[in-house]
Amino acid sequence: MTFKRLVLIILTIGAVALLTLNLLSSFLEPQFQSRLELYQTDITLQAQEWKLSGKNETVFKQLQAAIIGDKPLETAIQRYQGVRNEVKTTLKQVKQNLEQAKQLSTQSPLHKESDSLELLAKIREQEYLLSELDLRLGILQAKLGQVDAAKQTWKQVQQNQDTNSKLKLTAALLTELWNQPSTLESTAPELIKENLDSWFRDTTLLLLYQSQQSKQELSALQAAQQSRAKQALYKLAMVTGIPELGSIIGLGLLLLLIGQRLIKGKDSLFAQNADLAWTTPWDVETILQVLVVGFFFMGQIVVPILLQMLPASHPATNVRIQALDVLISYVLLALAALSVLFFSLKPFTPLPENWFRFRLLDSWFFWGLGGYCVALPIVAIISYINQQIWRGQGGSNPLLQIILESRDNVALSIFFLTAGIMAPVFEEIFFRGFLLPSLTRYMSVWSAIIISSFLFAIVHFNLSEVLRLTALGIVLGIVYTRSRNLLAPMLLHNLWNSATLATLFVFGSR
Question: Are 465 and 396 in contact (CB under 8 A)?
Answer without folding.
Answer: yes
